[in-house]
Design goal:
Length: about 220
């Protein structure tokens, strides 16, 4: 099911849009603040973000810029009462892919969502996130709190393996086998310890990567 994050503080509008899109097969998560939207997208990247501009804790363009820094290919559609040319141009400059002025017909919104998704595809599987850390699998890049972090190939593969197994305790032996031995690079246990230390240092000692004493590691939201 295609997932949409809808950022809207007007309960009536949010309910009407969610109900309509749900009937057409979308899974819609409604966020009433920018902070809530950042948490939702950070925990699970949707296929599309619908953003109102005037939110209780800021302006939708701020969230649009945040999305562009962290999830470059995630399509963004602005839904707003602000129809001035200057507002529209500014939103596109901030990274929006489409702009719809309220009031709008739900059928038209649905058609424009389908058109935008045809152009972009479903990028939700491209990104993995946990604890403010994001992996863009297409670009093989890592970012932490919006800042791109340079990592080695081994550090990337280690983080990717932990991300793909979020919530699971992975033994040291299993990690070595999957990250190194699977590629024919046979290493000793100390290599994992050193690689993990360097990765944690680069990511500013994230609390989401936990050491399970005498066993291995687990990555999970804190």
């Amino acid at each position: 099911m295609t997932e949409i994050c809808y950022v809207e503080d007007d309960c009536d509008i949010a309910h009407a849009v969610k109900e309509y899109l749900t009937r057409r097969g979308f899974a819609v998560t409604v966020c009433a603040t920018l902070a809530e939207a950042k948490r939702a997208i950070g925990a699970h990247v949707p296929a599309l973000a619908l953003l109102d501009q005037n939110m209780p804790d800021g302006h939708g363009d701020e969230l649009c810029r945040w999305i562009r820094r962290n999830y470059k290919e995630l399509p963004v559609m602005i839904l707003t009462v602000r129809g001035d040319a200057a507002d529209i141009v500014l939103s596109f400059q901030n990274g929006a892919d489409d702009y719809v002025v309220k009031p709008f017909e739900l059928e038209v919104l649905y058609a424009r969502i389908l058109a935008l998704l045809r152009r972009s595809g479903d990028v939700s599987g491209q990104y993995l996130s946990c604890g403010g850390i994001t992996i863009d699998q297409n670009r093989r890049s890592v970012s932490c709190s919006g800042e791109e972090i340079g990592v080695s190939a081994a550090e990337y593969e280690l983080l990717l393996y932990l991300m793909r197994n979020q919530g699971k305790t992975i033994t040291r032996e299993r990690i070595v086998a999957q990250v190194w031995d699977a590629n024919g690079n046979f290493v000793n246990d100390n290599t994992l310890t050193v690689t993990m230390k360097r990765l944690r240092d680069k990511l500013h000692q994230p609390s989401c990567i936990r050491t399970v004493r005498s066993v291995g590691y687990r990555m999970e939201e804190t």
